[in-house]
Amino acid sequence: MELTMPTLSGLARKTFTCLLGVAAAALVGGLALGSASAQDYPEMTLKFGHPYAETHPLAKGAQMFADTIAEKSGGAITVEVFPNSTIGSSRDLVESIQIGVVDFALVPTTNVASFYPPLDIFYLPFLFRDSEHAYAVSDGPVGEALYADMLEKTGIRTLGMYESGFRTITTRDKKVEKPEDMEGVKFRVVNNPLNVATFKALGANPTPMALSEVFTGLQQGTVDGQDNPVGNVKAFGFDKVQGNITLSNHQWAGIMFLADDKMWADLPDNVKDLFAATAKETQEWERKELNAVESQYLDDMEAGGMVVTRLTPEQTAAFQKAMEPVWAEYREKIGSDLIQSAVDTK
């Protein structure tokens, strides 16, 4: 996968410089949050939707955001959290943000990419070396420039990037150790062309399906497998209807903390500072919590009879080789410069 050396575009450099100033201002504002009382904040009630089960670290992070906002605003600001797709699927939530029906949402980058295609960079298979690399891209100049451009084009503001970890492959009764093992498998994927292309390249029969429908699809045999991070496999009970999990780590699942920019524009500055600072605080908590519980989830699933397959470096290389056509197709769609900027991020 040879790529030419790029630099961030002029837009990216200019945007990131501007964003550094915004981040510094938010930090200064955040230092004064601790002494706030109810009289400092207007009374308001806001909606926060996400597709995750209440036991998932992502759901706990969203609830922590709501609880912290209530505490720091002296009870003036209420954030109502709606988990488990109760007010819409991931795609529904993005649309609801755009029309102002929902104020905040947690949505995977791959779903938001349907509205802002450059975000496909986050799901380019085997792009990220490890979690620290993913954080450096999502939190650094590459990510900040993308979020600023997305805000301008879609009216959706990014307050942070939670995560659900690296994606794995699960199947009902077929152990997956090499790309050929995916041949002909009826496989649930996220409804995004890049995800479809990824599993077509492995010879699977990809079937787009909302996360809320996956358990039933697996249980009834509509699909025989799916890909999700370990936390999702456990939280949604996929381990109860799947016999195998392969730690392929083929994509990193960044979960965007989104806000309606029209709502944001009407907020007093101290409320903006409160929301921005709390989103970052809970982002850091959620990432640590997710990584802390993931190994326990795997132990629990293995104890429950699930076969856990850990790929060797040679086996991983075979999957990476199979992804070369996907990289060739999406190099032009995403942009060689953007891809190389992400690859070069330390």
Topology:
Blueprint: H1 10-31, E1 44-49, H2 57-72, E2 77-82, H3 90-99, E3 104-108, H4 109-112, H5 131-139, H6 141-154, E4 156-171, E5 186-189, H7 193-200, E6 205-208, H8 214-220, E7 225-229, H9 230-235, E8 244-247, E9 252-260, H10 261-265, H11 269-303, E10 307-310, H12 313-322, H13 324-334, H14 336-344
Parallel strand pairs: 1-2, 1-3, 5-6, 5-7, 8-10
Antiparallel strand pairs: 3-9, 4-7, 4-8, 4-9
Helix pairs in contact: 1-6, 1-11, 2-11, 5-6
Task: Evaluate the radius of gyration.
Answer: 20 Å
Largest sheet: 10 strands, mixed
Roughly how many Å apart are the termini? 18 Å
Strand count: 10
Structural class: alpha/beta
Low-confidence stretches: 1-36
Number of helices: 14
Taken from the alpha-carbon principal axes, the silhouette is globular
The helix content, as a percent range, equals 40-55%
Work out the strand percent: 15-25%
Write the H/E string, N to C.
HEHEHEHHHEEHEHEHEEHHEHHH
Averaged pLDDT: 90
Keywords:
single chain; about 350 residues; alpha/beta; 10-stranded mixed sheet; 10 strands; about 50% helix; globular
Provide structural commentary.
The structure is a single chain. With 346 residues, the protein is α/β, with parallel strands linked by helices. The chain contains 14 helices and 10 strands. Strands 1, 2, 3, 4, 5, 6, 7, 8, 9 and 10 form a 10-stranded mixed sheet that branches. Helix 1 packs across helix 6. The longest helix is centred in the C-terminal third of the chain and has 35 residues. 44% of the residues are buried. The N terminus is likely disordered.
